[in-house]
Specification:
The chain is built from 25 helices and 20 strands. It has a seven-stranded mixed β-sheet, sandwiched between helices. A seven-stranded parallel β-sheet has the order 16-15-14-17-18-19-20, with helices on both faces. β1 (48-57) and β2 (63-69) form a beta hairpin. It is elongated, with a radius of gyration of 30 Å. The N and C termini lie far apart (73 Å).
């Protein structure tokens, strides 16, 4: 492994933080923490920590010896000084004299002794860092180290590779007991330069930041070299179909199968999005004849159970042209995984009297023979984390199998960590938003109503696909709303472009759950004098485009098998036509009934279809020029025209967006029409 320390960069960071009142040691602690955190083979999504023993002054000016240790929630790759909260050392060291310390009491003690009470919770391994006497302590979950410790004879193997330079600590769950045992082992041989934690990772330590970091890289490199020099080809490939389906083609089927049933069969699902990865190394692993058996053994380091449960689900290779049949196979495999996870929970939960609530039984990582791996999550961030973890699992297990046999922590011990009270508390505080895990596609997404809708749905947890005729504007809206939204340029009157937009949404997120068919435009003129081409043009955009969008939505809804939501932007013109506006009102009336036809034809598969009738919304459709024309035609001021309703208020794009959201969340409502116009009795439905 490459040593990334550079004197010039280290000094540059020291100077940068010196200007902010941060001392040299803490600046270098930040520097090497970032070096470690930036390498996924060492640290991945919370799997590691660092510390510095220093001095700090509280708000009253009292100076204390402190441990600055990585705080919960901070990414080591981009950590700042405040991500290393200072904890009073005397309290931490006093804890070593205790015979026992409950996890909750340990966390409370550490928080009570923070110099800054507003700091994040110190790492769960704070006591281990404190009990070691060195100024700088580094901890990683190196995949190369895991290849050594995930063996049946791990202690003898580590002795062979590292000699007496590293102490060996048997597996103990992170916390007080591990800290005491590790410190005792160090005290028996204080000449060691680090500690190996069985089934877990490695610690290195020194009196300066560079030496501690150098030791980490040196020992990891020794492990890598041992695997490279002594490893055999670990896998034999299975036979694959001559022609494979693509990852995108199977994704909606998979995504539907792993949706969490939250309504006891009543059509309410906790959906997840997907992130696909592949590489030669991943393919060697997923195509191995032992892949399914390996998946049942466990994970390479216990922390991974928080991300991918007991390990991945394995699917057979999908044969091209047989997607519906493969969809059934996926559901069978998901049922098997779910049953196995339920048995794992029930068996281990019965071992004591602690009350626990079983987590959902769906996989978070799927291996697909012939294709690669797919991470799943209630957000794209979670899906990417699961996929990242999957790649490192492949790395570690491949190394372990190359030099012996992958022998990870027993599932009974894994259960103790997955259902650890501290982790359960974290999960309980991370409540999903109403649309978490759902994917919403909005047409006309760069217009006033479309952009307001995209923004509102994203704020409720949905990943949004912004589709607009102008690709640059679609991308601009997507960037502005965040939450991994994407922008796509597409003319919705082009059926090929519409299909491509839906396929792009499927490629990125795995499918689509909610569709807001919003794109439209208006043409004026007396109906009897209107050119035929104008009326046909309006029908193409204001009716047939809605049909094309809805057809593609249903295509994916049927593959997912978890229902879906169709939302149409109709218009007041559909029920209360205005003079000289027939070219717009006629196709909108057809679209209103289109929404009801979809409700009628697809309600049986859980698809809900509703429409919103909006009136007088400032947008690209109702431009300032058109507002002037319409107000003149009615003999009123522009203000009175825009507020010409029972409430006397101008209706905004955000009000229409709220109506769409209400429909998206109304689980028992379909074939409905919601009017958003401030009150217009003439346009009220009878």
């Amino acid at each position: 492994m490459q040593n990334l320390w550079k004197d010039s960069e280290a000094e540059k960071l020291v100077e940068h933080y010196a200007a902010k009142g941060v001392d040299r040691d803490l600046a270098l602690r930040v520097y090497t923490t970032r070096l470690l955190g930036g390498e996924p083979r060492l640290v991945l999504h919370g799997g590691g920590n660092t510390s510095l023993k220093s001095k700090a002054t509280d708000i009253l000016g009292r100076e204390y010896d402190v441990l600055c240790v990585k705080g919960s929630g901070w990414d080591m790759g981009v950590i700042e000084p405040q991500g290393l909260p200072a904890v009073k050392m005397d309290a931490l060291l006093a804890a070593r004299r205790l015979d026992a310390l409950a996890d909750e009491d340990m966390v409370a003690m550490q928080r009570a002794n923070l110099i800054d009470p507003g700091s994040p919770n110190p790492s769960i391994e704070t006591l281990l860092h404190a009990f070691l006497p060195h100024k700088f302590v580094d901890h990683t979950h190196s995949t190369a180290i895991l290849a050594l410790v995930d063996q049946k004879d791990s202690e003898a193997l580590c002795k062979k590779v590292f000699g007496d330079r590293l102490g060996f600590v048997p597996y103990i769950k992170p916390g007080f007991d591990l800290a005491k045992e590790a410190a005792d082992i160090y005290d028996k041989n204080p000449a060691v330069e680090g500690l190996i934690l069985d089934k877990h990772g490695i610690f290195t330590f020194a009196e300066d930041a560079k030496t501690a970091y150098d030791l980490m890289i040196e020992f990891v490199t020794m492990a890598e070299d041992y695997v490279a020099e002594n490893g055999k080809a670990p896998f034999k490939p299975v036979a694959l179909p001559k022609e494979l389906a693509t990852p995108s083609e199977i994704m909606p089927y998979l995504r539907g199968a792993i949706a969490i049933d939250e309504g006891e069969g009543e059509g309410k699902y906790g959906r997840m999005v997907c992130d696909f990865r592949t590489s030669p190394k991943i393919l060697d692993y997923v195509n191995a004849d032992t892949a399914e058996e390996l998946a049942t053994r466990g994970v390479s380091t216990p922390d991974l159970s928080i991300r991918i449960k007991t390990g991945p689900m394995v699917l057979p290779a999908p044969e091209a042209g047989k997607l519906d049949e493969y969809g059934k196979v996926i559901r069978e495999k998901v049922a098997e995984f779910s049953a196995r996870y339920k048995d794992y929970f029930e068996t281990n939960n019965a071992a004591d009297d602690v009350e626990r609530t079983m987590l959902d039984t769906m996989p978070r990582l799927t291996l697909v023979r012939g294709l690669g791996l797919i991470g799943h999550g209630r957000s794209m961030k979670e899906a990417k984390i699961a996929a990242d973890v999957g790649e490192m699992l492949v790395e570690a297990v491949t190394g372990a199998e190359a030099i012996g046999s992958f022998h990870p922590l027993a599932l009974s011990d894994l259960f103790e960590l997955e259902y650890w009270s501290l982790e359960q508390a974290k999960l309980a505080s991370n409540k999903p938003k109403p649309l978490s895990g759902q994917v919403t596609l909005v047409t006309g997404g760069a217009g006033a109503i479309g952009a307001a809708t995209a923004k509102l749905f994203a704020s409720q947890g949905s990943h949004v696909v912004v589709v607009d005729m102008h690709a640059d504007k679609a991308e601009e809206v997507a960037k502005s709303i965040g939450n991994a939204a994407i922008g796509i340029g597409a003319d919705v009157t082009d059926a090929t472009a519409v299909r491509a937009a839906f396929d792009r949404a499927r490629d990125v997120f795995g499918g689509v759950d909610i569709v807001v068919s919003n794109a439209g435009a208006a043409w004026e003129g007396k109906i009897g004098e209107l050119e035929d081409a104008t009326l046909r043009k309006s029908f193409e955009l204001n009716f047939f485009a809605h049909q094309s969008v809805a057809q593609n939505a249903v295509r994916l809804f049927k593959q997912q098998g978890t229902g879906g939501v169709l939302l149409f932007n109709a218009s007041k013109q559909a029920v209360n036509p205005g003079a000289n506006f027939g070219a717009y009102g006629l196709p909108k009336a057809a679209t209103l009934f289109l929404s009801r036809q979809y409700a009628l034809d697809y309600g049986s598969i859980g698809v809900r279809s509703n429409a919103v009738n909006a009136d007088r919304i400032r947008s690209g459709l109702l431009t300032n020029e058109m507002i002037a024309n319409r107000s003149t035609a009615r003999g009123v001021s522009e203000k009175d025209y825009m507020g010409g309703n029972l409430l006397g208020l101008e209706v905004r794009a955000e009000d229409v967006a709220q109506a769409f959201l209400n429909h998206a969340l109304a689980e028992r409502t379909t074939a409905d029409v919601t009017t958003v116009d401030g009150g217009n009795i003439a346009a009220a439905l009878r």
